[in-house]
Protein backbone atom coordinates (compact mmCIF):
# COMPACT_ATOMS: atom_id res chain seq x y z
CA UNK A 1 0.00 0.00 0.00
CA UNK A 2 1.40 3.38 -0.95
CA UNK A 3 1.88 6.14 1.61
CA UNK A 4 0.14 9.46 1.08
CA UNK A 5 1.57 12.91 1.64
CA UNK A 6 0.20 16.08 3.20
CA UNK A 7 -2.66 18.08 1.69
CA UNK A 8 -0.41 21.10 0.95
CA UNK A 9 0.42 19.79 -2.52
CA UNK A 10 -1.49 20.84 -5.62
CA UNK A 11 -0.58 17.66 -7.51
CA UNK A 12 -1.26 14.58 -5.40
CA UNK A 13 1.44 11.90 -5.32
CA UNK A 14 2.18 8.85 -3.20
CA UNK A 15 5.31 7.12 -1.93
CA UNK A 16 5.92 3.41 -1.54
CA UNK A 17 8.01 3.16 1.63
CA UNK A 18 9.83 5.11 4.35
CA UNK A 19 12.60 2.54 4.87
CA UNK A 20 16.25 3.50 5.01
CA UNK A 21 18.37 2.01 2.17
CA UNK A 22 15.23 1.04 0.24
CA UNK A 23 14.18 2.55 -3.08
CA UNK A 24 11.28 4.94 -2.48
CA UNK A 25 8.96 5.09 -5.50
CA UNK A 26 6.96 8.27 -6.05
CA UNK A 27 3.82 8.14 -8.23
CA UNK A 28 1.41 10.89 -9.24
CA UNK A 29 -2.18 9.84 -8.50
CA UNK A 30 -4.14 8.84 -11.64
CA UNK A 31 -6.63 11.69 -11.21
CA UNK A 32 -3.81 14.26 -11.55
CA UNK A 33 -1.94 12.67 -14.50
CA UNK A 34 -4.16 14.14 -17.22
CA UNK A 35 -2.63 17.02 -19.15
CA UNK A 36 0.90 16.74 -17.74
CA UNK A 37 3.57 17.76 -20.26
CA UNK A 38 6.66 17.18 -18.09
CA UNK A 39 7.73 16.94 -14.44
CA UNK A 40 10.75 17.66 -12.27
CA UNK A 41 11.29 15.86 -8.95
CA UNK A 42 13.54 17.18 -6.16
CA UNK A 43 14.01 14.54 -3.44
CA UNK A 44 15.46 16.84 -0.77
CA UNK A 45 18.67 14.81 -0.49
CA UNK A 46 21.49 17.03 -1.88
CA UNK A 47 24.13 14.66 -0.50
CA UNK A 48 23.10 12.16 -3.22
CA UNK A 49 24.38 14.51 -5.96
CA UNK A 50 22.81 14.12 -9.40
CA UNK A 51 20.48 11.38 -8.06
CA UNK A 52 18.62 14.07 -6.08
CA UNK A 53 16.51 15.06 -9.11
CA UNK A 54 14.55 13.24 -11.80
CA UNK A 55 12.48 14.21 -14.82
CA UNK A 56 10.67 10.87 -15.06
CA UNK A 57 6.90 10.73 -14.52
CA UNK A 58 7.50 8.05 -11.86
CA UNK A 59 10.30 9.18 -9.58
CA UNK A 60 12.48 6.95 -7.40
CA UNK A 61 15.16 7.68 -4.82
CA UNK A 62 17.21 5.73 -2.28
CA UNK A 63 17.72 7.48 1.06
CA UNK A 64 20.83 6.25 2.87
CA UNK A 65 20.39 8.32 6.03
CA UNK A 66 17.57 8.37 8.57
CA UNK A 67 15.90 11.78 8.78
CA UNK A 68 13.15 14.06 7.47
CA UNK A 69 13.32 15.20 3.84
CA UNK A 70 11.27 17.75 1.87
CA UNK A 71 10.18 16.26 -1.46
CA UNK A 72 9.23 18.75 -4.18
CA UNK A 73 7.38 18.05 -7.44
CA UNK A 74 7.11 20.63 -10.24
CA UNK A 75 4.47 19.74 -12.83
CA UNK A 76 4.11 21.49 -16.20
CA UNK A 77 0.64 21.60 -17.77
CA UNK A 78 0.23 23.65 -20.96
CA UNK A 79 3.60 25.17 -20.15
CA UNK A 80 2.44 26.41 -16.72
CA UNK A 81 4.34 25.00 -13.69
CA UNK A 82 2.77 24.14 -10.34
CA UNK A 83 4.79 23.09 -7.29
CA UNK A 84 3.83 20.46 -4.71
CA UNK A 85 5.79 19.51 -1.58
CA UNK A 86 5.62 16.94 1.19
CA UNK A 87 7.69 16.05 4.23
CA UNK A 88 9.01 12.46 4.18
CA UNK A 89 10.52 10.86 7.29
CA UNK A 90 12.92 8.00 6.56
CA UNK A 91 13.26 5.44 9.39
CA UNK A 92 15.36 2.34 10.02
CA UNK A 93 13.46 -0.95 9.47
CA UNK A 94 12.29 -2.64 12.67
CA UNK A 95 13.65 -6.20 12.90
CA UNK A 96 11.09 -8.51 14.52
CA UNK A 97 10.22 -12.22 14.54
CA UNK A 98 6.52 -13.09 14.47
CA UNK A 99 7.28 -16.75 15.11
CA UNK A 100 6.65 -19.62 12.66
CA UNK A 101 6.40 -18.40 9.06
CA UNK A 102 3.46 -20.75 8.36
CA UNK A 103 0.56 -21.03 10.84
CA UNK A 104 -2.79 -22.82 10.63
CA UNK A 105 -6.26 -21.88 11.86
CA UNK A 106 -9.16 -24.31 12.12
CA UNK A 107 -12.92 -23.89 11.80
CA UNK A 108 -14.16 -21.17 14.25
CA UNK A 109 -10.65 -20.47 15.57
CA UNK A 110 -8.51 -17.33 15.39
CA UNK A 111 -5.01 -16.19 16.27
CA UNK A 112 -3.72 -12.72 17.17
CA UNK A 113 -0.57 -11.23 15.67
CA UNK A 114 1.02 -8.33 17.55
CA UNK A 115 3.62 -5.96 16.11
CA UNK A 116 6.56 -4.83 18.27
CA UNK A 117 6.01 -1.83 20.52
CA UNK A 118 7.63 1.35 19.19
CA UNK A 119 6.93 4.55 21.11
CA UNK A 120 4.74 6.97 19.15
CA UNK A 121 4.71 4.72 16.08
CA UNK A 122 1.95 4.31 13.51
CA UNK A 123 1.02 0.81 12.31
CA UNK A 124 -0.50 -0.35 9.04
CA UNK A 125 -1.33 -4.00 8.29
CA UNK A 126 -1.81 -5.41 4.79
CA UNK A 127 -5.62 -4.95 5.07
CA UNK A 128 -5.28 -1.27 6.00
CA UNK A 129 -6.04 -1.69 9.71
CA UNK A 130 -3.96 0.52 12.01
CA UNK A 131 -3.91 -1.20 15.43
CA UNK A 132 -0.76 -2.69 16.90
CA UNK A 133 -2.45 -6.13 16.85
CA UNK A 134 -4.58 -7.86 14.23
CA UNK A 135 -7.12 -10.68 14.69
CA UNK A 136 -6.45 -13.39 12.12
CA UNK A 137 -9.53 -15.34 11.04
CA UNK A 138 -8.94 -15.83 7.30
CA UNK A 139 -6.23 -17.39 5.17
CA UNK A 140 -3.59 -15.00 3.80
CA UNK A 141 -0.16 -13.43 4.25
CA UNK A 142 0.01 -10.98 7.15
CA UNK A 143 2.58 -8.16 7.27
CA UNK A 144 2.82 -4.76 8.92
CA UNK A 145 4.44 -1.37 8.32
CA UNK A 146 5.78 0.63 11.28
CA UNK A 147 5.98 4.34 10.53
CA UNK A 148 5.52 3.44 6.87
CA UNK A 149 8.45 1.00 6.78
CA UNK A 150 7.65 -2.68 6.22
CA UNK A 151 8.80 -5.13 8.91
CA UNK A 152 10.87 -7.76 7.04
CA UNK A 153 9.12 -10.72 8.73
CA UNK A 154 5.62 -11.88 7.72
CA UNK A 155 3.28 -14.77 8.51
CA UNK A 156 1.48 -17.09 6.08
CA UNK A 157 -1.80 -18.25 7.61
CA UNK A 158 -3.54 -21.36 6.22
CA UNK A 159 -7.10 -22.50 6.86
CA UNK A 160 -8.07 -26.09 7.58
CA UNK A 161 -11.79 -26.90 7.26
CA UNK A 162 -13.44 -29.82 9.04
CA UNK A 163 -12.87 -32.83 6.76
CA UNK A 164 -16.04 -34.51 5.51
CA UNK A 165 -15.05 -38.16 5.30
CA UNK A 166 -17.46 -40.43 3.43
CA UNK A 167 -16.29 -43.88 2.36
CA UNK A 168 -19.78 -44.74 1.11
CA UNK A 169 -22.18 -47.43 2.33
CA UNK A 170 -21.28 -48.82 5.72
CA UNK A 171 -21.26 -52.37 4.33
CA UNK A 172 -20.71 -53.82 0.85
CA UNK A 173 -20.53 -57.31 -0.66
CA UNK A 174 -18.62 -57.16 -3.97
CA UNK A 175 -18.39 -59.84 -6.61
CA UNK A 176 -15.01 -61.53 -7.06
CA UNK A 177 -12.55 -59.55 -9.17
CA UNK A 178 -14.17 -56.15 -8.48
CA UNK A 179 -12.02 -53.16 -7.57
CA UNK A 180 -13.17 -50.33 -5.33
CA UNK A 181 -11.25 -47.13 -4.53
CA UNK A 182 -11.80 -45.78 -1.01
CA UNK A 183 -11.17 -42.02 -1.12
CA UNK A 184 -10.84 -39.88 2.05
CA UNK A 185 -9.22 -36.82 0.43
CA UNK A 186 -9.67 -33.60 2.44
CA UNK A 187 -7.85 -30.26 2.70
CA UNK A 188 -4.66 -29.92 4.81
CA UNK A 189 -4.85 -33.44 6.28
CA UNK A 190 -2.56 -36.40 6.85
CA UNK A 191 -3.96 -39.94 6.79
CA UNK A 192 -3.58 -43.30 8.48
CA UNK A 193 -5.57 -46.41 7.46
CA UNK A 194 -5.87 -49.50 9.62
CA UNK A 195 -4.10 -51.25 6.73
CA UNK A 196 -1.00 -49.12 7.44
CA UNK A 197 -1.42 -46.97 4.33
CA UNK A 198 -0.85 -43.21 4.70
CA UNK A 199 -2.26 -42.08 1.35
CA UNK A 200 -5.63 -40.27 1.06
CA UNK A 201 -7.04 -43.22 -0.88
CA UNK A 202 -6.55 -47.01 -1.08
CA UNK A 203 -7.64 -49.74 -3.51
CA UNK A 204 -9.67 -52.75 -2.32
CA UNK A 205 -9.66 -55.84 -4.58
CA UNK A 206 -9.92 -59.63 -4.29
CA UNK A 207 -10.16 -62.51 -6.75
CA UNK A 208 -11.16 -64.96 -4.03
CA UNK A 209 -13.99 -65.03 -1.50
CA UNK A 210 -13.23 -62.90 1.54
CA UNK A 211 -15.28 -62.37 4.70
CA UNK A 212 -16.41 -58.90 5.71
CA UNK A 213 -13.33 -56.79 6.47
CA UNK A 214 -13.28 -53.49 8.29
CA UNK A 215 -11.48 -50.50 6.72
CA UNK A 216 -10.87 -47.48 8.95
CA UNK A 217 -9.30 -44.17 7.93
CA UNK A 218 -8.15 -41.46 10.40
CA UNK A 219 -7.58 -37.95 9.03
CA UNK A 220 -5.45 -35.55 11.08
CA UNK A 221 -6.62 -32.04 10.15
CA UNK A 222 -3.27 -30.31 10.85
CA UNK A 223 -3.76 -29.94 14.60
CA UNK A 224 -7.49 -29.19 14.29
CA UNK A 225 -8.58 -32.67 15.37
CA UNK A 226 -8.79 -36.32 14.30
CA UNK A 227 -11.67 -37.50 12.10
CA UNK A 228 -12.60 -41.09 11.19
CA UNK A 229 -14.82 -43.11 8.90
CA UNK A 230 -15.38 -46.87 8.58
CA UNK A 231 -16.65 -49.27 5.92
CA UNK A 232 -17.03 -53.08 5.85
CA UNK A 233 -16.32 -54.90 2.55
CA UNK A 234 -16.72 -58.59 1.71
CA UNK A 235 -16.15 -60.52 -1.56
CA UNK A 236 -18.49 -63.35 -2.67
CA UNK A 237 -20.22 -64.95 -5.66
CA UNK A 238 -18.48 -65.25 -9.01
CA UNK A 239 -16.61 -62.86 -11.29
CA UNK A 240 -19.06 -60.94 -13.47
CA UNK A 241 -17.65 -58.81 -16.34
CA UNK A 242 -19.41 -55.42 -16.38
CA UNK A 243 -18.85 -52.03 -18.02
CA UNK A 244 -20.84 -48.81 -18.59
CA UNK A 245 -18.85 -48.11 -21.76
CA UNK A 246 -16.37 -45.40 -22.68
CA UNK A 247 -16.25 -41.92 -21.18
CA UNK A 248 -18.04 -39.44 -23.43
CA UNK A 249 -18.23 -35.76 -24.36
CA UNK A 250 -21.53 -34.10 -25.31
CA UNK A 251 -22.39 -30.85 -27.05
CA UNK A 252 -24.64 -28.29 -25.29
CA UNK A 253 -28.28 -29.37 -25.31
CA UNK A 254 -27.47 -33.04 -25.86
CA UNK A 255 -28.20 -35.87 -23.43
CA UNK A 256 -27.10 -39.47 -23.09
CA UNK A 257 -28.82 -42.61 -21.82
CA UNK A 258 -26.43 -44.79 -19.83
CA UNK A 259 -27.39 -48.46 -19.74
CA UNK A 260 -26.24 -50.74 -16.90
CA UNK A 261 -28.27 -53.81 -18.05
CA UNK A 262 -26.34 -57.00 -17.47
CA UNK A 263 -27.38 -60.71 -17.09
CA UNK A 264 -28.49 -61.66 -13.59
CA UNK A 265 -28.99 -58.08 -12.44
CA UNK A 266 -31.56 -57.76 -9.66
CA UNK A 267 -31.10 -54.15 -8.44
CA UNK A 268 -29.41 -50.87 -9.44
CA UNK A 269 -28.01 -47.98 -7.37
CA UNK A 270 -26.85 -44.96 -9.41
CA UNK A 271 -24.93 -41.99 -8.00
CA UNK A 272 -27.69 -39.68 -9.30
CA UNK A 273 -30.30 -41.54 -7.23
CA UNK A 274 -31.80 -43.63 -10.06
CA UNK A 275 -32.68 -47.28 -9.36
CA UNK A 276 -33.58 -48.33 -12.92
CA UNK A 277 -31.40 -50.24 -15.43
CA UNK A 278 -30.88 -47.03 -17.42
CA UNK A 279 -30.56 -43.35 -16.54
CA UNK A 280 -30.61 -40.20 -18.68
CA UNK A 281 -27.89 -37.56 -18.15
CA UNK A 282 -28.07 -33.94 -19.36
CA UNK A 283 -25.13 -32.42 -17.42
CA UNK A 284 -21.56 -33.10 -16.34
CA UNK A 285 -21.26 -36.25 -14.20
CA UNK A 286 -18.76 -38.67 -12.70
CA UNK A 287 -21.51 -41.28 -12.87
CA UNK A 288 -21.20 -44.60 -11.05
CA UNK A 289 -23.55 -47.51 -10.47
CA UNK A 290 -23.68 -50.57 -8.19
CA UNK A 291 -25.52 -53.52 -9.78
CA UNK A 292 -26.67 -56.41 -7.60
CA UNK A 293 -26.07 -59.78 -9.28
CA UNK A 294 -28.44 -62.62 -8.34
CA UNK A 295 -28.95 -61.09 -4.90
CA UNK A 296 -25.44 -62.34 -4.02
CA UNK A 297 -22.90 -59.60 -4.71
CA UNK A 298 -22.45 -56.30 -6.51
CA UNK A 299 -20.46 -55.13 -9.50
CA UNK A 300 -19.67 -51.48 -10.15
CA UNK A 301 -18.32 -49.12 -12.81
CA UNK A 302 -17.91 -45.37 -13.40
CA UNK A 303 -18.31 -43.33 -16.59
CA UNK A 304 -17.15 -39.74 -16.99
CA UNK A 305 -19.59 -37.53 -18.88
CA UNK A 306 -18.17 -34.19 -20.02
CA UNK A 307 -19.66 -31.34 -22.02
CA UNK A 308 -18.10 -29.00 -24.54
CA UNK A 309 -17.92 -25.60 -22.81
CA UNK A 310 -21.16 -23.68 -23.01
CA UNK A 311 -19.25 -20.54 -24.01
CA UNK A 312 -18.07 -20.05 -27.56
CA UNK A 313 -14.41 -20.26 -28.45
CA UNK A 314 -13.09 -16.71 -27.94
CA UNK A 315 -9.56 -15.45 -28.63
CA UNK A 316 -10.56 -11.94 -27.57
CA UNK A 317 -10.92 -8.69 -29.49
CA UNK A 318 -8.49 -7.52 -32.15
CA UNK A 319 -5.57 -5.96 -30.32
CA UNK A 320 -2.38 -3.93 -30.58
CA UNK A 321 0.84 -5.23 -28.99
CA UNK A 322 4.15 -3.47 -28.45
CA UNK A 323 7.17 -4.67 -30.44
CA UNK A 324 9.39 -6.95 -28.42
CA UNK A 325 6.44 -8.37 -26.46
CA UNK A 326 4.69 -11.68 -27.02
CA UNK A 327 0.93 -12.15 -27.06
CA UNK A 328 -0.25 -15.52 -25.74
CA UNK A 329 -3.53 -16.70 -27.27
CA UNK A 330 -5.38 -19.29 -25.20
CA UNK A 331 -8.02 -21.39 -26.91
CA UNK A 332 -9.42 -22.43 -23.48
CA UNK A 333 -11.93 -24.95 -24.81
CA UNK A 334 -11.53 -27.81 -22.38
CA UNK A 335 -10.28 -31.23 -23.43
CA UNK A 336 -10.49 -30.42 -27.15
CA UNK A 337 -8.25 -31.04 -30.15
CA UNK A 338 -7.00 -27.79 -31.70
CA UNK A 339 -5.76 -26.65 -35.11
CA UNK A 340 -4.26 -23.18 -35.69
CA UNK A 341 -3.76 -21.35 -38.98
CA UNK A 342 -0.23 -22.80 -39.30
CA UNK A 343 -1.55 -26.36 -38.54
CA UNK A 344 -0.03 -26.42 -35.03
CA UNK A 345 -2.14 -28.29 -32.47
CA UNK A 346 -1.36 -26.83 -29.03
CA UNK A 347 -3.98 -25.14 -26.80
CA UNK A 348 -1.95 -21.91 -26.60
CA UNK A 349 -0.30 -19.93 -29.39
CA UNK A 350 2.50 -17.36 -29.15
CA UNK A 351 2.12 -14.31 -31.42
CA UNK A 352 5.22 -12.25 -32.25
CA UNK A 353 4.27 -10.46 -35.48
CA UNK A 354 1.33 -8.65 -37.09
CA UNK A 355 -1.30 -10.83 -38.78
CA UNK A 356 -4.59 -12.72 -38.58
CA UNK A 357 -4.67 -15.75 -36.29
CA UNK A 358 -7.43 -18.37 -36.11
CA UNK A 359 -8.01 -21.61 -34.29
CA UNK A 360 -10.50 -24.44 -34.65
CA UNK A 361 -11.43 -26.55 -31.63
CA UNK A 362 -13.09 -29.95 -31.79
CA UNK A 363 -14.67 -31.67 -28.79
CA UNK A 364 -16.30 -34.91 -29.84
CA UNK A 365 -18.70 -33.92 -32.59
CA UNK A 366 -18.66 -30.27 -31.50
CA UNK A 367 -16.58 -27.82 -33.56
CA UNK A 368 -16.03 -24.12 -32.99
CA UNK A 369 -13.54 -21.52 -34.27
CA UNK A 370 -12.46 -17.91 -33.79
CA UNK A 371 -10.15 -15.37 -35.47
CA UNK A 372 -8.22 -12.39 -34.11
CA UNK A 373 -6.14 -9.68 -35.79
CA UNK A 374 -2.97 -8.68 -33.96
CA UNK A 375 -0.97 -5.57 -34.82
CA UNK A 376 2.44 -4.78 -33.39
CA UNK A 377 3.27 -1.16 -32.61
CA UNK A 378 6.75 0.14 -31.89
CA UNK A 379 7.67 1.56 -28.52
CA UNK A 380 8.04 5.34 -28.73
CA UNK A 381 11.50 6.86 -28.50
CA UNK A 382 11.09 10.62 -28.66
CA UNK A 383 14.26 12.57 -29.37
CA UNK A 384 14.50 16.36 -29.54
CA UNK A 385 18.26 16.27 -29.81
CA UNK A 386 20.86 17.81 -27.53
CA UNK A 387 20.57 21.14 -25.75
CA UNK A 388 21.26 23.81 -28.36
CA UNK A 389 22.92 27.27 -28.47
CA UNK A 390 21.60 29.56 -31.24
CA UNK A 391 22.27 33.01 -32.54
CA UNK A 392 19.85 35.78 -31.57
CA UNK A 393 17.24 36.32 -34.26
CA UNK A 394 17.26 32.73 -35.52
CA UNK A 395 14.20 30.47 -35.55
CA UNK A 396 14.88 26.89 -34.47
CA UNK A 397 12.31 24.22 -35.41
CA UNK A 398 11.92 21.25 -33.06
CA UNK A 399 11.03 17.99 -34.85
CA UNK A 400 8.84 15.34 -33.11
CA UNK A 401 11.29 12.54 -34.05
CA UNK A 402 10.20 9.14 -32.72
CA UNK A 403 6.94 10.55 -31.31
CA UNK A 404 4.52 8.72 -33.59
CA UNK A 405 1.14 10.28 -34.36
CA UNK A 406 -0.08 11.33 -30.89
CA UNK A 407 2.02 13.92 -29.11
CA UNK A 408 1.85 17.29 -27.37
CA UNK A 409 4.43 20.03 -26.91
CA UNK A 410 4.94 21.79 -23.58
CA UNK A 411 2.20 24.29 -24.49
CA UNK A 412 -0.24 21.38 -25.28
CA UNK A 413 -0.09 22.08 -29.03
CA UNK A 414 0.43 19.31 -31.59
CA UNK A 415 2.31 21.22 -34.30
CA UNK A 416 4.26 19.10 -36.83
CA UNK A 417 7.20 21.48 -36.16
CA UNK A 418 7.54 23.65 -33.09
CA UNK A 419 9.24 27.01 -33.82
CA UNK A 420 11.57 28.22 -31.05
CA UNK A 421 12.22 31.97 -31.03
CA UNK A 422 13.29 32.52 -27.44
CA UNK A 423 15.39 30.77 -24.82
CA UNK A 424 13.65 28.23 -22.61
CA UNK A 425 12.96 24.63 -21.65
CA UNK A 426 10.97 22.72 -24.28
CA UNK A 427 9.40 19.27 -24.01
CA UNK A 428 7.31 16.77 -25.94
CA UNK A 429 5.03 14.03 -24.57
CA UNK A 430 4.14 11.20 -26.97
CA UNK A 431 1.68 8.37 -26.32
CA UNK A 432 0.55 5.18 -28.00
CA UNK A 433 -0.67 1.77 -26.90
CA UNK A 434 2.85 0.94 -25.69
CA UNK A 435 2.87 3.77 -23.20
CA UNK A 436 4.37 7.23 -22.97
CA UNK A 437 7.68 8.77 -24.03
CA UNK A 438 8.98 12.18 -22.94
CA UNK A 439 12.00 14.18 -24.05
CA UNK A 440 13.18 17.65 -23.10
CA UNK A 441 15.70 20.13 -24.41
CA UNK A 442 17.08 23.52 -23.31
CA UNK A 443 17.48 26.19 -26.01
CA UNK A 444 19.64 29.28 -25.39
CA UNK A 445 20.50 32.27 -27.59
CA UNK A 446 23.56 34.50 -27.85
CA UNK A 447 25.08 37.20 -30.05
CA UNK A 448 27.01 35.60 -32.89
CA UNK A 449 29.92 37.28 -34.68
CA UNK A 450 29.87 34.82 -37.58
CA UNK A 451 26.60 34.00 -39.27
CA UNK A 452 25.72 31.44 -41.93
CA UNK A 453 22.50 32.08 -43.83
CA UNK A 454 20.31 30.01 -46.14
CA UNK A 455 17.66 31.46 -48.48
CA UNK A 456 13.97 30.93 -47.70
CA UNK A 457 13.12 30.17 -51.35
CA UNK A 458 14.77 29.37 -54.67
CA UNK A 459 13.81 28.54 -58.28
CA UNK A 460 15.74 25.52 -59.67
CA UNK A 461 14.39 26.00 -63.23
CA UNK A 462 17.79 26.24 -64.98
CA UNK A 463 17.27 29.88 -66.03
CA UNK A 464 20.57 30.87 -64.51
CA UNK A 465 18.96 32.84 -61.69
CA UNK A 466 18.64 31.52 -58.14
CA UNK A 467 19.00 27.91 -59.31
CA UNK A 468 20.92 26.62 -56.27
CA UNK A 469 20.15 26.34 -52.56
CA UNK A 470 23.39 26.83 -50.62
CA UNK A 471 24.68 28.74 -47.59
CA UNK A 472 26.13 32.26 -47.54
CA UNK A 473 28.88 33.10 -45.03
CA UNK A 474 31.85 35.46 -44.58
CA UNK A 475 33.98 33.59 -42.07
CA UNK A 476 35.83 30.29 -41.93
CA UNK A 477 33.64 27.33 -40.97
CA UNK A 478 34.31 23.59 -40.54
CA UNK A 479 32.47 20.32 -39.79
CA UNK A 480 29.67 21.47 -42.06
CA UNK A 481 26.53 19.31 -42.55
CA UNK A 482 23.28 20.18 -44.33
CA UNK A 483 20.26 17.84 -44.48
CA UNK A 484 16.88 18.44 -46.18
CA UNK A 485 13.62 16.57 -45.52
CA UNK A 486 10.31 16.44 -47.37
CA UNK A 487 6.90 16.69 -45.69
CA UNK A 488 6.93 12.96 -44.87
CA UNK A 489 10.26 13.17 -43.06
CA UNK A 490 12.26 11.47 -45.82
CA UNK A 491 15.83 12.67 -46.27
CA UNK A 492 16.14 14.01 -49.82
CA UNK A 493 19.50 15.82 -49.71
CA UNK A 494 22.71 15.70 -47.70
CA UNK A 495 26.09 17.41 -48.07
CA UNK A 496 29.18 18.22 -46.02
CA UNK A 497 30.50 20.80 -48.53
CA UNK A 498 29.15 24.33 -48.01
CA UNK A 499 30.26 25.23 -51.53
CA UNK A 500 27.94 22.69 -53.16
CA UNK A 501 24.35 23.72 -53.76
CA UNK A 502 21.14 21.67 -54.00
CA UNK A 503 19.51 21.73 -57.47
CA UNK A 504 16.03 20.76 -56.24
CA UNK A 505 16.34 17.12 -57.35
CA UNK A 506 15.68 13.82 -55.60
CA UNK A 507 15.50 10.24 -56.83
CA UNK A 508 16.64 11.26 -60.35
CA UNK A 509 13.91 13.86 -60.77
CA UNK A 510 12.85 17.34 -59.73
CA UNK A 511 11.02 17.71 -56.43
CA UNK A 512 7.51 19.18 -56.58
CA UNK A 513 6.70 22.73 -55.61
CA UNK A 514 6.44 23.03 -51.83
CA UNK A 515 8.22 23.69 -48.57
CA UNK A 516 11.14 21.55 -47.35
CA UNK A 517 12.76 21.47 -43.90
CA UNK A 518 16.51 21.75 -43.41
CA UNK A 519 18.93 21.15 -40.53
CA UNK A 520 22.43 22.70 -40.67
CA UNK A 521 25.43 22.12 -38.37
CA UNK A 522 28.81 23.83 -38.54
CA UNK A 523 31.74 25.02 -36.41
CA UNK A 524 33.18 28.55 -36.41
CA UNK A 525 36.92 28.04 -36.91
CA UNK A 526 37.95 31.24 -35.12
CA UNK A 527 36.20 30.37 -31.84
CA UNK A 528 35.64 26.60 -32.08
CA UNK A 529 31.94 27.21 -31.36
CA UNK A 530 29.50 24.61 -32.72
CA UNK A 531 26.26 25.93 -34.20
CA UNK A 532 23.03 24.15 -35.16
CA UNK A 533 20.30 25.79 -37.22
CA UNK A 534 16.99 24.63 -38.64
CA UNK A 535 14.57 26.22 -41.04
CA UNK A 536 12.59 25.72 -44.21
CA UNK A 537 12.92 26.58 -47.88
CA UNK A 538 10.21 26.88 -50.53
CA UNK A 539 10.82 25.46 -54.02
CA UNK A 540 9.22 27.56 -56.77
CA UNK A 541 9.28 26.94 -60.54
From TrEMBL:
Domain of life: Bacteria
PROSITE patterns, per database record: PKD
CDD domains (alphabetical): PKD
Residues covered by the PKD domain: 41-93
Pfam families to which the protein is assigned, alphabetical: CHU_C, PKD_4
SUPFAM superfamilies: PKD domain
Protein name per its UniProtKB record: Gliding motility-associated-like protein
Organism expressing this protein natively: Chitinophaga ginsengisoli
